[in-house]
Amino acid sequence: MATAKAGGTPHHHKMVIVGGGTGGLQLATRLGRKLGKKGQVEITLIEASPTHIWKPLLHEVAAGTLDSYEDEIEYLAQAAWSHFRYRLGRMEALDRQQREISVAPTYNEKGEEIIPRRHFHYDTLVMAVGSVSNDFGIPGVRSHCFFLDTTQQAADFQRQLIESYVRAHARGKPLARGELNVAIVGGGATGVELAAQLHTVSRLFTAYGLEVKPADIKLSIIEAAPRLLSGLPSRIAEPTERQLRQLGIEILANERVIEVTEKGIHTHSGRFIPARIKVWAAGVKAPDFLKALAGLETNPRHQLVVRPTLQTSRDDHIFALGDCAACPWIGHEGTVPPRAQAAQQQARFLYQNIRNQLAGKPLRDYHYRDYGSLVSLGRYSTVGNLMGTITGSFLIEGWIARLVYLSLYKRHQIVLFGPFRTAMLTLSHLFHRSVHPQVKLH
Ligand SMILES: Cc1cc2nc3c(=O)[nH]c(=O)nc-3n(C[C@H](O)[C@H](O)[C@H](O)COP(=O)(O)OP(=O)(O)OC[C@H]3O[C@@H](n4cnc5c(N)ncnc54)[C@H](O)[C@@H]3O)c2cc1C
C-alpha cells in the first residue's frame, strides 16, 4: 500500500519473495496481478535460476521423456506479464534489524561475475526456497550420486544415461559389470516414478535402434523401510510393487545404504549393488543456509518454524511456505508434508493473508487439506488414493487416476497463465509430442 513519507514522497510497501518454485511463483503471480498491477505494492521475486520448471516433472526430465525446454517458464517474461519484478540471484544472508536480504554475486560459465552482490530492502519477506536432497552425511553420496533437485541435475543425469547407452551400443561387446545399471536410493514416490520412466526409456532406446542386451540393463530401488511408498497406504504400495517386479525392476527393501562408491552401493546387511549410475531420492531437508538465518527458529531438517498464519515463529514480517516451512498440521500430529499440493495451497492462502495484513485485518490460520496421493508408473499405470469429505480415503486407478495426477500440474499452469493459455499450451504440447521422438536422444 502506498503511504506518504515525512518528505511527502509516497512509500510503496516492498514485498520480497525468495524462491520462485511451485509456491513462490504462484504467490508472486497472484499478488502481482492484484496488488502489483495497481501499483499498491512493489513485489520482487529473487530466484537462483533464470527459468522455472514445475519440480514434480524433474524425474521425466531425468529420464528424457520430457524436454525441459518444452515446459520451462522464463521468469523475466512471467514477471512482465504479472506485474512483479524478477531478480536473478541466490539469497545468502538476512539482516532482520535493517529488514534487508543479501544476494550473492552471479557468475557466468567462465567464472566471470555478471551481477555483483546486492541488497534488497523489504517490509514483508516471504521465504519459499523449497528443499534439497538429504544425504544424511553418508559417505560417497555427494560425490557419486545424481540428485533431482534442479533442472540442471536432472539434465546431467539424462546426459550420463544416454552416453552410457551410446557407448554400450557402439562397442557391441560385453559391458563392464554394472555399466548400464541404475540404482535408485529411496522407494518413495520420486524413486518409484523414476524407475518406471527409466524402464519405458530403455524400451524406447531399443525401438530407436540403440540396441543393448536386456540382460545388461538392471534397474534397482533400494529402500531402508520394509516396503516401497512407506508414507502411503499398503493398498497403493502393494500393486505398485507388484507391477514394478513384473517389469523386472529389482526392489531391495530393508536395506540401509552405508556407503556409495564409483562402482556401486553398499548396504548395512553387507550387500553390494553394482551400478555405474546412482540416483539419490531418499528424503529432503531445507537448504543449509536457513540453519543460522538471523536467529530465526528452525527444526532439525533446517525448515523455518512457522505459526499457522505462516509467519515465522520469531518475526511477524517474515513468512515461509512450502517445503522450507515447518507448519503445524492443524488436527494432526507433526507438520504439513513437503508436497506440491501443500505449496500450492499455502501460496493461495498466503495471498489472502498478506492482503489481510496490508489491510490491517486479522490473519487467518492455514489448515492443510490432504487431497490424497497418486503415483504414476508412466505408460504402465497410475494408482493412488483420494480423500473424500464424506467417504474418507478411496482408491483410484487407471485413466481416472492419470487425469487426477495430471490435474495438479494443470492447476499450477492455470494460476500462472490463466485457463485459455493453459489450454493452448496443452494443445501445443500434444502437437509437439506427435511429431517428435518420445524420448530425448542426445
Ligand atoms: C522428482 C520429484 C517428483 C515430485 N513429485 C511430486 C508429486 O507427484 N506430488 C507432489 O505433491 N509433490 C511432488 N514432489 C515434491 C514437490 O516438487 C515439492 O513439494 C514442491 O515443489 C515444493 O514447492 P516449493 O515452492 O516449496 O519449492 P520448490 O518448488 O522446490 O521451489 C523452490 C525455489 O527456490 C529457489 N531457491 C532455492 N534456494 C534459493 C536461494 N537461496 N535464493 C533464491 N532462490 C532459491 C529454487 O531455485 C526453486 O526455484 C516431487 C519432487 C521431486 C524432486
From TrEMBL:
The keyword 4Fe-4S does not apply. Residues 14-347 form the FAD/NAD(P)-binding domain. Keywords: FAD, Flavoprotein, NAD, Oxidoreductase. InterPro entries: FAD/NAD-bd_sf (IPR036188), FAD/NAD-binding_dom (IPR023753), NDH-2 (IPR045024). Gene3D superfamilies: 3.50.50.100. GO terms for molecular function: NADH dehydrogenase (ubiquinone) activity; NADH dehydrogenase activity. The keyword NAD applies. It comes from the Bacteria. Belongs to the NADH dehydrogenase family. PANTHER family: NADH DEHYDROGENASE, TYPE II NADH:QUINONE OXIDOREDUCTASE. This is NAD(P)/FAD-dependent oxidoreductase. It comes from Nitrosococcus wardiae.
